[in-house]
Amino acid sequence: MSTLAAGFADDVRTYAAAGLDGIGVWELKLGDGPDNDAVALLRESGLGSATAVPAVPSILPLPLLAGPADPRERIDAILRSLHRLAAFEPAAVLCFTGPGDRATAIRGLREVVAEAEKLDLRIALEPFQAEGTESWSILNTLGDAAEVVEEIGSPALGIQFDVWHLWNTPELFEEIERHAPLIAGVHVNDWREPTRGWADRVLPGDGVAGVPAILGALDSAGWDGFYDIEVFSDNGTFGVAYPDSLWDVDAATLVDRGRRQFLECWEERRVAA
Predict the structure, then answer these.
(1) Would you kindly state where each structural domain of the chain is located, as residue ranges?
(2) Quick check: helix, strand or coil at residue 191?
(3) Contact 166, 176 (CB under 8 A)
(4) pLDDT for 113-170, tens place per residue?
(5) Which CATH number does the domain 8-267 belong to among 3.20.20.150, 3.30.450.20, 3.40.50.2300, 3.40.50.1370?
(6) Model confidence pTM above 0.85
C-alpha cells in the first residue's frame, strides 16, 4: 500500500530489487484476476508473503471507505477474498471489526475465522488508533483484540500489530509482552506530528511514535515474522491531497528510503525500561 500508484507486478519487481524479504498482498492491487500470473511472479521473485488485505477489510461498514453497507454482504466478500488470497500463502489476512454493534462483529468474525481454518489461513484482527476509532473499529488496544481472540478461541485468529495504531496505547510495552504470542503480523510506520488525518503517516523514524523502542519490545517478546512497512499518505485518493504525499514519490525511491530507515530504527532498537 505504501506504493499505491504502482501495480502488483511492478511492486513485486521493485521490492525484490530493493532487497526486501517480503510483500503484503493487497487484493485491490490484483484487479479482476485471474491471479495465476501474479502468484507465479511472486513465487519466482523469492519474496515472502506478509499480511494480506482483502478488498473489503471489515465486518461492519467503514464510514470513510466505500463498500457494502450490509454486514452479510461484507462477510460474503471477505469469505471470497480468503479463497482468492490463499493462493498467495500469506502469513495472515487482515480484518477489522468496523465500528458499531459488537455482537454482529463477533458473529461475522467467527464465520470468517471458521473459513480460514478450512483454508489453513490465519486472520489478523487489527485494533485501530484511539484517535478516530469510532469510524473504524470497536477495538483500539492489543488487550481489546486479545479479549476477542480468547472469546472466539481459535488458533486461526491472531492480532495485527500496527505501530501507527498502537504507539500511544497506555502501557504498550507491557501489552506487547503479555500478548506477543497472539501477534500474527506487524505493520511498521510512524506518527506524523501534527497529524492531519488517518491517511497521513510517515516512514519509520520520521515521526514521534518511538519506533526503535517498539521494535525492541517486539523483538524481545519473540516476534520473528515480517516487519511490513505500511504507509498511507493521501494524494487525493481518499479525499485529501497532502502536498508532501509519499504516494507521489517514485516507488523505487520510496522503497529504498523505507528499507534504509527501518534498518536504522532496527539498529537503534531497545527495550523500554
Answers:
(1) 8-267
(2) strand
(3) no
(4) 999 999 999 999 999 999 999 999 999 999 999 999 999 999 999 999 999 999 999 9
(5) 3.20.20.150
(6) yes
